[in-house]
Design goal:
The protein is of the alpha+beta class. It has a single domain, classed as Nucleoside Triphosphate Pyrophosphohydrolase (Alpha-Beta Complex). The protein contains 2 helices and 7 strands; from the N terminus they run E-E-E-E-H-E-E-E-H. Strands 1, 2, 3, 4, 5, 6 and 7 form a 7-stranded mixed beta sheet that branches. The mean pLDDT is 91.
């Protein structure tokens, strides 16, 4: 029996809004289409990998930081159609959580990684839609009760 390969899009991905006090961990994207823009650390989910596991892996790979995931903030579609042709479609599960250990050090596809005070986020050039997702994650993180 011949099975058609799956369509290449959409692809599952994750990102994480990780807070340390009133600071948020951000990465500066090094590759197109978001090169030069700040965003939440994240990336693709590998086959057979759980979404939370992928979020923690991507976080560590891009920044060297470990965190505790508290919950899911949002699910976001990132779709690019330059010249009317679909080139990218990711379905991103955006988690939120708290910093546990490590100081940010850019790696993988990040050009920079750092904790940014929440009051300074408006001064940064961020990926489209990031500000509203971050605001929602902050509200949820502020109310989250983490089980032992």
């Amino acid at each position: 029996m011949v099975i058609d390969p799956p369509d290449p899009w959409p692809r599952p991905a994750v990102s994480s809004a990780i807070f340390r006090g009133e600071q948020l961990l951000l990465v500066l994207r090094a590759r197109p289409p978001y090169a030069g823009r700040w965003s939440l650390p994240g990336g693709r989910i590998k086959p057979g990998e759980g979404a939370r596991e992928a979020a923690l892996r991507e976080l560590f790979e891009e920044t060297g930081v470990t965190a505790q995931i508290s919950g899911l903030a949002e699910i976001v579609d990132v779709i690019h159609t330059p010249k009317g042709v679909l080139s990218t479609h990711y379905v991103i599960s955006v988690f939120f959580g708290t910093w546990l250990a490590g100081e940010p050090l850019a790696a993988s596809d990040a050009a920079d990684a750092r904790f940014v005070p929440l009051r300074e986020l408006a001064d940064l050039s961020m990926t489209e839609g990031a500000a509203s997702v971050i605001a929602k994650a902050w509200r949820l993180a502020s109310c989250a009760v983490v089980a032992p």
